[in-house]
């Protein structure tokens, strides 16, 4: 049976030593409360919850799945008690707005907690996780009345939330959406339509579920410009907050899926259900994108989370399983064989996963701080820069982290050989669960199009220029630093490849838009590798500095030394992939677009 | 529901136009019988079997799985009838030795048929597939009496065969093997031990199962040098060929696995079962490797087979599913949206799979011809060269084809978005089934070690020098051919990278053996990419030649034009990966080996 131990030490390193969140105490509300002691207490308590309550339910959830009976969805055994524990522990309110009962703590802490919970039980964590996005949409677009009516119960965890976009004939292309919203005399709407793939669409964990549903108000514009967003609660909510009548919506089926069996993926029927317009009419898509962007960062962290837990279990196996001898001769001559971890190719797999997840954690948590800067920083320029950066890097993290999450879980399964293919090892569940993250909240190809088609050209490339400036500034600052040159030099090379690729795109994507689409995924990977390379170079700088200037002698020297080795591995064994991506980009779209469809 | 149509046209192109198997009519027995008409008839009949009989059972096999009741394993509904159809159709005997009832046709035809069957139903195809390896071991190492007793029934398909290597504590490291074989007065042995992960170890398809079992004769040497191979039939076989008493062996459990549910993966208990020494005592491992090498080629084809069937189903979806508009503007303005296949990133995924499977088919079938040259060619030098090449490329094909088979099935799943994650689409079964091929018959990391540690240095690098010579000769011959230069130039560049990597290995792997292990997988990929690049360059040459010099005007011009585009895609979008692999190789083992085990 697999196990999980939250990587608290690494999280603290990222939060305090790499990001130095105490920098923001004066400018960002909530950061003053995030003292090292409070952070430590939160991480320790979230670790306990994840390790002791959620992880033991992970395999059960996979095996038992969800059950639909007469319109009622039953979650797997133990999920309801666990959800109650999560809500009563105050976890859903951690980063919620204090006006509605939230604790107002930094977003980055919410990310750390959600990483742990997702490592422990991804299917379970989606129930509270999706609520976070719905809360955000209501916070930003809702009327005061809507906020007062829905937010306190959602932030407390008493109710959960969902996102209803997809219909049987329309996923990515929301312009095809058909669900209807008929205006009523009282200002409400009657929602009619069928939505599919609705995660946590129906369940037995809470007394109410707040659905956010995209639908068309008759008479509005065609395509995406005629889509509006509605709050459609499972049970209507009276003005005093008490639950009213059951709304005309129901779960028609739950999907049989490859993984995340513990989460109910529902077909939802809306049969004239009463809904309330959220934000402006026909402005549903921009509001939905607010949710989507937050959700995309959360999904990126899911990729990282599955890599982390798979890594821990593969590592334990590789330390214990005796098989073969080191190529340098027996390392444990008193045993029948050496443990797997002596073998270089096993280490290649483990190190690939280790540097992915530690680098991804650094980058994701940096993004978490950026979210708070966007929302709370008093300086407009700081907010705008943060928004540019986060906008650019959100699709990059979503696609690269989830692709690598899947690659990582598979590398970890591979470490176990045939045993990894057996259900009882738990490894194949990590693979199946991780697979969905490459698809939902916008398939990864869509992320690449968002990057190349929208985020890159916006404001004449302001965001990518900002990235160039930050990375180039770092490289120039440390260019003569001999200790850092093994990190700075490869990073500078990778950056130049990204610059070249960007120039290629500017020259070729306007004349032939297919060039943009054809190279979008390679370009996304190039950005991801530079961003992670920058994180690892920073890690090397911070750790080398600590090793040269220890504040006291009792520090964990090995931790910092190991980080430097990981940075070296990233530079030598991962970053060279930038060369292949650049070459593929420079080949353009021709070889993809020549064939007529019937020739495939 | 997924479907499958055997790619007969592409198979014929490879067999007749690329490999030109009629060249061997004079030198290789069996090739004279393989006239174009016979080949066409065989492929058509195998296609019918695969499409109509096996494919419809694929999802059923996955859903129902195998069942163990009181020691009896029941295969999924329909499997027994299908197996009977396969045996009665004479398929198991296709390439079997004529002395024992085989048809003696070229090995490459057997590969084509097994590709089709595996595309249609991989779990089913393993039942007859594993028998092929057991037949081969008995053919090569068996006594005349053993051959006469076992081969006719195995070649006819009346009995199946298995390979019993793995034990609970020992997989790759067979030196740890504990199963015992006690010599008996009559020359037989009593086999005792537990074997795990035995594919098709027990089933209800045939009246007998011939297990080949590795065990130790007491008193023999320790480690792998004391392992012998035994024939251990489920039912003893009398001298006249009739079945005798049940042997003391049984299936103790069937494994619950990620995929290939239709194949019974058995824990086998040998409780003093009667076995017959196959080949010399203590020489079990070399004999087992005869089986393993044939099996590895078959597993390589499994990787290709899952890519092919997943591709067909993804392609159909991408042609039908309307979603979004071409970046160049609506291509089908009369429809609500354009089909997915207009999108460059969708084409990137499809083309990646298409050029993998078509290139892999060319390389695998070439290997199939090589097998016949090794076995049947009258000229010793031709045999030796074929043996060198096949020895070198077998681990390369096994690892690269199965890695890419998994990548491909996942790319195909991704084309369907959320629908690909739903069980009913069938895509996720291809992913789960394809996953095992990276593990069994030697995990892919072991293939890389076999390549770098054994095949590469053997005979002072004779095999890789042969590869260099072939590819370099091709490049030099066509270096001034303007029409071929888009293919020759990238191939020559890739070859030089492989040469550089080989020189690096020669310089650095002796002084530090960990360098060999650390770069083995990157080196394997480099060899694979050059080998496939060579195939694609050959395809481009053959097709351009055909287009310039058509033998008649009625030929399918589009087929040849499309092949040239695929070759271009391979050169521009796949082969650049060689640059990254070389850079990683040149970084050596340091960053992998520095960390102590406890620092991971």
UniProtKB/TrEMBL annotation, chains A, B:
What is the E.C. number?
1.3.99.41
**Function comment:** Involved in the assimilation of dimethylsulphoniopropionate (DMSP), an important compound in the fixation of carbon in marine phytoplankton, by mediating the conversion of 3-(methylthio)propanoyl-CoA (MMPA-CoA) to 3-(methylthio)acryloyl-CoA (MTA-CoA).
Q: In this protein, which residues make up the domain named Acyl-CoA dehydrogenase/oxidase C-terminal? A: 283-451
Which SUPFAM superfamilies does the record match to this protein? Acyl-CoA dehydrogenase C-terminal domain-like, Acyl-CoA dehydrogenase NM domain-like
Q: Which PANTHER family match?
A: ACYL-COA DEHYDROGENASE, BROAD-SPECIFICITY LINEAR ACYL-COA DEHYDROGENASE FADE5
- One family from Pfam that matches here is Acyl-CoA_dh_M
Acetyl-CoA dehydrogenase-like C-terminal domain mapped to chain residues? 470-595
The Acyl-CoA oxidase/dehydrogenase middle domain is annotated at 163-271
- Descriptive protein name: 3-methylmercaptopropionyl-CoA dehydrogenase
Q: Which family is annotated?
A: Belongs to the acyl-CoA dehydrogenase family.
Reactions listed under catalytic activity:
3-(methylsulfanyl)propanoyl-CoA + oxidized [electron-transfer flavoprotein] + H(+) = 3-(methylsulfanyl)acryloyl-CoA + reduced [electron-transfer flavoprotein]
């Amino acid at each position: 049976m697999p196990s999980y131990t939250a990587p608290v030490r690494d999280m603290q390193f990222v939060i305090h030593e790499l990001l130095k969140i105490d920098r923001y105490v004066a400018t960002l509300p909530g950061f003053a409360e995030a003292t090292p002691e409070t952070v430590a207490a939160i991480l320790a308590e979230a670790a306990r919850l994840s390790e002791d309550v959620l992880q033991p339910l992970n395999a059960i959830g996979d095996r038992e799945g969800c059950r639909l009976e007469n319109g009622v969805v039953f979650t797997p055994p133990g999920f309801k008690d666990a959800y109650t524990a999560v809500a009563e522990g105050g976890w859903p309110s951690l980063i919620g707005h204090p006006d509605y009962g939230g604790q107002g703590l930094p977003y980055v802490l919410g990310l750390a907690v959600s990483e742990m919970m997702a490592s422990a039980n991804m299917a379970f964590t989606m129930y509270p996780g999706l609520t976070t996005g719905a809360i955000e949409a209501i916070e930003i677009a809702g009327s005061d009345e809507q906020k007062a009516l829905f937010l306190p119960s959602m932030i407390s965890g008493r109710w959960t939330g969902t996102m209803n976009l997809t219909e049987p004939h329309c996923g990515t292309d929301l312009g095809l959406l058909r669900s209807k919203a008929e205006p009523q005399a009282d200002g409400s709407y009657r929602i009619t339509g069928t939505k599919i793939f609705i995660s946590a669409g129906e369940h037995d964990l809470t007394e109410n579920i707040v659905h956010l549903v995209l639908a068309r108000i008759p008479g509005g514009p065609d395509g995406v410009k005629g889509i509006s967003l509605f709050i459609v609660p499972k049970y209507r909510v009276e003005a005093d907050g008490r639950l009213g009548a059951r709304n005309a919506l129901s779960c028609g089926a739950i999907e049989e899926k490859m993984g995340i069996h513990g989460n109910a993926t529902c077909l939802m029927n809306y049969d004239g259900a009463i809904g309330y317009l959220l934000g402006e009419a026909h402005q549903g898509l921009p509001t939905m994108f607010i949710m989507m962007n937050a959700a995309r960062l959360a999904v990126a962290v899911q990729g990282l989370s599955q890599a982390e837990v798979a890594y821990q279990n593969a590592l334990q196996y590789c330390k214990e399983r005796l098989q073969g001898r080191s190529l340098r001769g027996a390392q444990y001559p008193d045993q029948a064989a050496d443990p797997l971890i002596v073998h270089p190719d096993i280490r290649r797999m483990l190190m690939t996963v280790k540097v992915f997840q530690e680098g991804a954690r650094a980058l994701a948590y940096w993004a978490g701080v950026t979210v708070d800067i966007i929302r709370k920083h008093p300086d407009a320029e700081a907010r705008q820069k943060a928004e540019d950066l986060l906008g650019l890097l959100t699709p990059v993290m979503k696609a690269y982290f989830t692709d690598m999450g899947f690659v990582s879980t598979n590398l970890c399964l591979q470490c176990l050989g045939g045993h990894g293919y057996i259900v009882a090892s738990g490894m194949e569940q990590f693979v199946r669960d991780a697979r969905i993250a490459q698809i939902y909240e916008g398939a990864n190809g869509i992320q690449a199009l968002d990057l190349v088609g929208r985020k890159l050209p916006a404001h004449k490339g302001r965001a990518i220029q900002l990235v160039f400036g930050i990375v180039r500034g770092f490289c120039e600052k440390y260019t003569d630093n001999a200790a850092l040159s093994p990190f700075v030099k490869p990073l500078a090379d990778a950056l130049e490849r990204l610059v070249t690729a960007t120039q290629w795109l500017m020259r070729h994507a306007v004349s032939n838009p297919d060039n943009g689409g054809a190279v979008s995924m390679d370009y996304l990977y190039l950005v991801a590798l530079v961003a992670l390379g920058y994180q690892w170079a920073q890690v090397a700088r911070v750790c080398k500095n600590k090793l040269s200037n220890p504040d006291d002698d009792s520090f964990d020297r090995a931790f910092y030394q190991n980080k430097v080795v990981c940075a070296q591995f990233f530079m030598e064994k991962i970053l060279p992939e930038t060369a292949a991506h650049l070459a593929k980009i420079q080949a353009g779209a021709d070889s993809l677009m020549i064939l007529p469809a019937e020739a495939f």
